[in-house]
Amino acid sequence: MSIADKENNPRGKIIETAEELYENAPCGYVSFLSDGTIYNINSTLLSWLNFSKEEVIYLKRIPDLFKIGGQIFFETHFFPLIRMQGFIQEINFDIVRKDRSFFPGLINVKEISAKGKNPLTYRATIFDITDRKKYEKELIAAKKKAEEDSNTKAEFLSTISHEIRTPLHAILGIGNLLNKTHLNDDQKEYARILLHSSENLLELVNNLLDLSKIEAQKVKLEKRTFNLSNMVEMLQQTFKTKAEEKDISLQVTLGENVPQELSGDPVKLSQILTNLIGNAIKFTKKGSVKLIVENLETLKTKSLLRFKILDTGIGIPKNKLNAIFQEFSQASYDINMEYGGTGLGLTISQKLLQLHKSEMKVQSSKGKGSEFSFDIWYKVIKNHAPPKDKSISIEDRKMFKSSNVLIVDDNPTNIYITEQFLNEWKLKNESAESGLQAIEMIKQKHFDLVLLDLHMPRMNGYKTAKKIRALKLEKPPVIIALSASDRGEINYKLRKAGMSDHVSKPFKPEKLLETLVYYLQNPAHQKIKKSSKMDVAEKEEKKNKKEIASNKKEQKLKEDQKPSFDVSKFVKMANSNSLYLDKFIKSTLDAFILYEHEFLDAIKANSEEMIEDLIHKSTMSIFYIQANNLKEMMEETKSTIAKKGNKPGPLQKKIERMCRRI
Amino acid sequence: MSTPKNVSVLQRNNVKILGNGTQPMLFAHGYGCDQHMWRFVYPEFEKDYKVILFDHVGAGHSDHNSYSREKYDELLGYAEDIIDICEELDLKDVILVAHSVSCMIAAIATSLKPSRFSKLIMIGPSARYINDENYVGGFNREDIDDLMEALDSNYLGWSANMAPAIMGNPDRPELGEELSNSFCRTNPEIAKHFAKVTFMSDNRKDLKKVSVPTLVLQCSQDIIAPVEVGRYVHENLQNSEFQILNATGHCPNLSAPEETTLAIKKYLASTN
Question: Disulfide: which of A286, A474, A574, B13 matches B54 by Cβ 3.0-4.6 Å?
Fold first, then answer.
């Protein structure tokens, strides 16, 4: 059968048959049945594979040409796809030759419907893309590296901001406390500047953190009920002084039909508005700054609100209008010199609006002022109960007097600051400098609430919380995490570890107070939360985890090295299995022999730190074997260490005595 | 949990309710695709049952923001979602039809809440994919790494992430014309994580906890779940029937929907 028979071709007759076109095409052809069995294949592909036709036809299935990963991919992705859309394009498989070497191939497949006696079949072309693959690999590597670099930078930014926040917490806290002492006028001014500057620094660091979180897509919208006029009023109060200082009028107008009770993310909205009003005041020398909220459209349960911030400030030149939304860019270098700022505020606001599926619009002319505006849909809440008053009432004070709070933080400065606030609110408190210490204290005595630092050496906050929960106390304390991390990131872990809420450091005193009042008033809150629908799965998860854990119990006990000499407990733990019982005894013995050596080494090295570590380390073992004498001695030793200026003599004796006991 | 509060269970798992019957029949798709996997099977049951389809979080049109590495780091996370769906819709007497990895997800779900389920159909189950001492799962660890490579090198996964960028409408992806290979697109990172969780899982101990009567449907030639693997599942379940289909491959619901449907119908009729 000739399809090209060009008699008139000046170079002579060219004959090309369909068969030749098929067999020697510059690509592989293969046809297969619906179970993958190959019933036709062209010479090109056979020569690439090094197979003869007889070795393939009706003997091999299409996935046989792929590596094992490709076969799984074929079964789980490729085949379903082909059945669904009747074709498949540009899928990459490594194609295996007869000698098991392979080349990258690109496959296109078409489904040929059953017709008459012909069953459903598939036709595929295969291209050898060895060269292309090399380029692609380079591109992917470059993309990966760029992403990694970017992540590293973001992580660095986040870490460093984090690191800065911790000492800043101390500066702000102490500054606040200092401000409350009797100071002379000079000192008052110094303290004011100290606070002002550290607040600015905190804002900058927070902005950097926000930005890096948004970039890493870690920021999500929350849904909460809030009162818009309260928020707007708060904003007005916040900026009142600043505006008065500059002699600018600050006006807030809430349109008549603007709903008050909304459901949405008040924190993000307030952040955007704070930024815009702050900017407006900053860049306005005289005249006014206005915030106007209008209701553009109301549907059944939601309203589209427009927020406008107008000022009579310096304005923005037309050619800079786009640039102002980019990181670290302000309209000009001089602006930065004169007005300061990082140029991050608008970028963050714009990105927060993107989360709301909205965007910021700006109109401005140089010298006349600017108008920033954005629209957001909010769900409107009807019949909303008024929020609770958050200040300390007389009842709260009474409650505070009968409550007991434990502060757990490895950093004594942090403890000190928190203590000062709790003391000021007349709230009884004690402190622990490690998770272990906290657990010991909780075992001895009831605490209503634990303020727990998450980042502690040895036993971190999550572990500590889990262990506190594992004590199964009759009246378990409410556990509130206190850390420099952002709540969103750690929410899941918090709840898993049995913590109820989170206050971020450096904390605003009001925020801490609010949280304390709430949970002390309602210690059962955690339980209420637990029984809600959202947590059913979590409960089930725990239940199941327990079951799974029971399999690993024996192993875990060995790892933790906390078996007991107490036979009754032992038998219980070993599930009456003498083999395990034996193992427990042996491993406990081993542990104590090791402790003895380590204690003696620690005395030789005369290292209080080592001894303290060892006491921590052995606490659990001692607890399990219920060696109360030993426990007392340990505690005595610990308090001996704690007293400063102690001569090594008595300490050494104590430890030697302790070791003999062991 | 990690699910954003504003996303309901039904949105999270892209739940679709069809059919005219009252007894619920819940179809759980396997690894690699979404509820479309059942397109040739579920219409056969619409007349007599209430058919419920859904996508596992991370697959199809589920809410990808609800994906959390922590929750879905074990099959339990997916099992909880199935229970969520049953509770949300207050489903009782459920016939749970599961394919591939969903068989073990279903095993966990039914053992956690046996009272909600009346029957379980497992299509191509495997309690453990990787060989272990005397147990034959069919794969080695290296094979799974090879799968990761195959996933990495394919536009199928990529296209989910890159389609909006390629179409030039990053803000309004719905305006972009459909790329080819539009079905079963998944976020490549989620696909890889799900693959790891699937192929590294060992659910042999979960089988014994399943009390719901179960039909194990086994394909004749299935490299993902070979016959020995299916038989192992059958032998370790408390109350199961075992049937080998003529269909080959891992997806009889797509390659031999008539045979698959018939087997399910027969089982349901015989056990009623």
Answer: B13
